[in-house]
Amino acid sequence: PQTLRPLIAANWKMHGGLSWTSKPSDFEAIYPSSERRHLDVLICPPATLLASMNDGVFLGGQDCHAAVSGAHTGDVSAEMLKDAGATYVIVGHSERRAGGDTDEDVHAKAEAAKRAGLIPIICVGETESQRDAGQAEHVVSEQIKASVPDIANYVIAYEPVWAIGTGKTATPDDVDEMHNAIRAQVGPDVQLLYGGSVKPANAESLLALKNVNGALIGGAGLEMESLAAIARAA
Ligand code: PEP
């Protein structure tokens, strides 16, 4: 049984626009908030869409700069995301880490989120070669040590890099083992999300695990029907 409130989070990555067909208001029609009082649903669209969305789900950013403002061309601060309607912000997504974000950067971004009044979703996860070398738990535990600042309210998303956007999902046994290890490290109050090719077909077996408190969803979160089907499994 889940003791923490489930969080079902969609990361739209660089997809979507003002005239796009997928809209949070459709989510509300498919799975009304009156039927999902037991869980939270979050959509993280591109920052350009945040201010135009206000439809019964939580909204989040996909990344933020560590500074409040300044000469950082192309970047968005946590304060700007908050101003545009965000409640959460993803930090340390593997696609950002692959682009150069270090644990130190992720730590600073998570602190910025807290400073702005946002809840950071801090992503961690091992590569395939690290898993094959038996290093998965060690890698994740070191990432958590280095990326998570001393703040009260944050979410961890465990996303094995080899399972993101690949159609390969970690087995429930692997996820269970990793989430139990993360739980032992971070304590009882932190929501732990699994991410990596979550779809309606595998959501139930993953969300049934004791220390899986939700999911971070890429591809399947672009369609409101499949996002709702995953949310219904929580
Ligand atoms: C993600 O981008 O965080 C993710 C898990 O993507 P997908 O669900 O497409 O694997």
TrEMBL record:
Pfam families: TIM (PF00121). Keywords: Cytoplasm, Gluconeogenesis, Glycolysis, Isomerase. It is found in: Cytoplasm. GO terms for biological process: gluconeogenesis; glyceraldehyde-3-phosphate biosynthetic process; glycerol catabolic process; glycolytic process. Its main location: cytoplasm. Pathway: Carbohydrate degradation; glycolysis; D-glyceraldehyde 3-phosphate from glycerone phosphate: step 1/1; Carbohydrate metabolism; erythritol degradation; Carbohydrate biosynthesis; gluconeogenesis. Its EC number is 5.3.1.1. Homodimer. NCBIfam families: tim. This is Triosephosphate isomerase. It comes from Litorimonas cladophorae. The gene is tpiA.
